[in-house]
Amino acid sequence: MQLEHRHKQPNLEVRVKNIIEVDGLKFKDLNNSGKLEPYEDWRLSPTERAENLVSLMNLDEKVGMMLIHYRQMGLSQKDKSKTSHDGVLDEAIVEKGENIFAASKIWGTTHTIENMHLRHFIHRDNWSPAQMAEWINTMNEVCEGTRLGIPCLIASNSRNENAEAVFGMNDAAGIFSTWPGTLGLAAAAKGDIKNGGDSSLISQFAQIAHDEWDATGIRKGYMYMADVATDPRWQRTYGTFGEDPEFIADAIGRIIDGFQGETLGNHSIALTTKHFPGGGARENGFDPHYEEGKWNLYPTPGSLETYHLPPFRAAVEHGTSSMMPYYSIPSIKKSVVQQFEGEDIPFEEVGFTFNHYFIQHILREKLGFKGYINSDSGVTNKMCWGVEHLSEAERFAKAINAGTDLVADTNDVENLKLAIQNGWISEKRIDEANVRLLTEMFTLGLFDDRTYVSPEHATAVVSNPANWDAAYEAHKKSVTVLKNSDRTLPLTPDTLTGKKIYVEVFHKEPERAASYTERARKECQELGQFTLTEKVEEADIAILILHPKSGAYFTATPGLLELEICEKKTLTALDGAMYEETTLNGMHHLKEVADSVHIRGGKVIVSVNVILPWILANVEPLADALIAGYDTFYKAQFEVMAGNYRPVGVLPLTLPASEAVIAVDENGKCVSRNDVPGYDKDKYMPEGLEYAYKDSDGNIYKLGHGLTY
After folding, report:
1. Counting beta carbons within 10 angstroms of the beta carbon of residue 423, is it exposed (0 to 12), middle (13 to 18) or buried (19 or more)?
2. Distance in angstroms (rounded) separating the CA atoms of residues 80 and 88
């Protein structure tokens, strides 16, 4: 009886192959043999099925299984003659080098599935839930028609945070329920903790996002970042949960439980936690997407174990399905010896995806990780730090022998196959990787009742107003009041009698500033609590919302990344040349607006979008009240300003006091430690320097700071 209960007949759908009956039960005949193979038998364990399937696969099929590549939808293909299946699949061929991601020639969808045998695809398009579901269904229909009928698994970067689009980071905002950025989720949850609660907001976020992904058929998430932000100039700070290792460990555990469930199953979204063993220990903010940022630095004894590894330990304990190592190389010269559980760590100067000791010894043996290793994009071509001298086939061998099972954002079947044929990777290792990858697919139900999803159901789940309401609540909760001189806030009806409010948004790009200003004024109007004016000279109160931006994701700045909010500031490049940097356009106008309102005895409220730990010395003195948002909706900020919602949010990271506390000397050494979070940097600061910003009211903008009223 026990057995039957465990093996309830799944509801199977086929589009190409047949269903066969055995023992009065139904199974898919995925290889068209007319008989039941162990891999088709849903009564067996995922591992047993994976092992059987791997024994039936040829080398080309195993090679294709170990690569994941970006795949665009047919809807995104402008030339409809280059599509198939009524425009659903993109069949265009992109020649090598046509764009930065075409490291090798990209073939059409059908050719890639049928002839190159790829089964893992990264989804970056942003169409409706029903359209995405139909696309994934059609991809799986093509897969079903192949020799062994192996389905495909669609992965994506996160889709539930509000942010400006950045390829490879925020590919898709605004379709699924839209929450604040991850720093905003941290600000809100840490605020709840400060008020005696816990991080259940993170659990709620993960559960709701899970339901939306599951309905759409995207079953793999490249998320979330377990990295602890310790170097303030790191451009990817905004994708983290801040700088508090204990909080991040808790958040990552909740995220995994919410998306995957207690254990991985046929309604899980399998997660890839990134970027092991933590990308925060940058060399003065430079990012390993480019050569200048290829090193991870650990100048502080114990920093790797104390600050960077705890969230990854939590990810393993909560059963994350896969782990993504970072591009960067641990530097011997710029680090002191680090230990893990009492053992010295030997630093091999190769990127972590090639790093046998970190993957096998620390992650698998010490931490007990059971899942598979998914490299970051481009490790065999552009971002192959530490193994630049090797051929592409040798890089594949180095990564896979170090323990990497799935190589990301490539379709380079030739070089992986060459490495195997040359005897550089054993067949045993290739089989091991395939078993790991296929075990996940079997566990997710992709071979059985979860191959296809209902587009109508996807629409219904994603349009559920309760999800959007929960997300909006998190926006309000994320708003962090940093400064509130003379009780400027809240702007209650009695303080507003006869007063006019001027609203303007500032941005690095003037055209965005204009469109954002229009949106902010509209949302403020909708609130119906403020009398607005578009004339500064009439205003009694100004609400100025700042969106500073600094640096770029794929290219290094000529000098160090600028954290001051500034315009046309003269800086010195690393090579000694002079250049100008702007992080916010219209600084002069900003000051004029503030002065104009202050001269008439009015109040100025400034909101800064914290996607990096900005140095606020150029804007804080202009503000009677200063607020931090984290890609937080304007309307939510206005609600907090109006007193409709009591401020809850606190800073998820420390804001630096000045350029002096992050100064870098001629040898590239930073005055504050790159590998230590802001709240602990003072332990290592020179006499007389304090790391955190202090405002004119004496507030210190340290991790956990946030006022309320």
Report:
1. exposed
2. 10
Helix axes 392-402, 427-443, angle to 10 degrees: 70
Nearest Cα to Cα of residue 528 among 635, 633, 625: 635
- Which tokens go with 81? 């003659």
Averaged pLDDT for residues 16-26: 97
Contacts of 418 (CB under 8 A, 6+ apart): 393
Which residues is 273 bridged to in the sheet?
323
Q: State the Cα–Cα distance between residues 695 and 701, nearest whole angstrom.
A: 8
Q: How do residues 32-85 score in pLDDT, each as one tens digit?
A: 999 999 999 999 999 999 999 999 999 999 999 999 999 999 999 999 999 999
- Output the pLDDT for position 396: 98
Identify whether the C-beta of residue 412 lies closer than 8 Å to the C-beta of residue 104. yes
Which H or E element spans position 72?
none
Is residue 98 predicted with pLDDT exceeding 90?
no
Contact partners, residue 631, CB within 8 Å, separation at least 6: 161, 162, 163, 164, 180, 181, 184, 238, 609, 611
- Collapsed DSSP state (helix, strand, coil) of residue 496: helix
β-strand 343-344 against 339-340: which pairing, if any?
A: antiparallel
Taking residue 64's Cβ as centre, other Cβ atoms within 10 Å add up to 23
- At residue 554 the predicted structure's pLDDT band, cuts being 50, 70 and 90, is confident
For residue 114, what are its two tokens? 């049928």
Q: What is the pLDDT of residue 104?
A: 80
Rounded to 5 degrees, what angle do the CA atoms 73, 409, 297 make? 140
Q: How far apart are CA 469 and CA 137, in angstroms?
A: 30
pLDDT of the residue at 99: 64
Q: Going by DSSP bridges, is the β-strand pair 480-484/625-629 parallel, antiparallel, or unpaired?
A: antiparallel
Strands 89-90 and 83-84: antiparallel
Report the mean per-residue pLDDT for the chain.
Answer: 95
pTM: 0.96
Stretch 317-344: mean pLDDT: 97
- Name beta bridge partners: 20: 27
Instruction: Calculate what percentage of the chain has a pLDDT beyond 70.
Output: 97
Identify each DSSP E strand in 191-251 by its residue range.
220-222
Q: What residue spans of 36-128 are helical by DSSP H?
A: 46-56, 59-65, 109-114
Q: Per-residue pLDDT for 141 more than 60?
A: yes
Q: How many residues does the chain have?
A: 709
Residue-level pLDDT at 170: 45
- Measured distance CA(237)–CA(235) in Å, rounded: 6
Scanning the structure block, which residue is given the tokens 């003269």? 570
Nearest residue to 27 via CA among 13, 41, 43, 44: 41
Report phi then psi at 325, rounded to 5: -75, 155
C-beta of residue 140 within 8 angstroms of C-beta of residue 466: no
Dump pLDDT digits (tens) for 516-526. Answer: 999 999 999 99
**Residue 416 is which amino acid?**
L
Distance CA 143, CA 440 (A): 17
Measuring CA to CA, which residue among 687, 704, 698, 673 is closest to residue 231?
673
E strand or H helix that includes residue 6: helix 2-6
Residue 433 has which token pair?
């990787």
Alpha carbon separation from 42 to 411, 446, 485, 686 (Å, rounded): 30, 11, 65, 64
d(CA 145, CA 30): 8
Task: Supply angle C-alpha 651, 653, 655, rounded to 5.
Answer: 90
Bridge partners, residue 692, by sequence: 656
Question: Which stretches of 323-382 are DSSP H helices?
Answer: 356
- Sequence-separated (6 or more) residues with CB below 8 Å from residue 667: none
pLDDT-derived band at 168 (thresholds 50, 70, 90) equals very low
End-to-end CA distance of the chain: 61
Residues β-bridged to residue 286: 283
570-585 residue pLDDT tens? 999 999 999 999 999 9
Write down the residue that tokens 């004119």 correspond to: 696
Rounded Cα distance, 628 and 244, in Å: 18
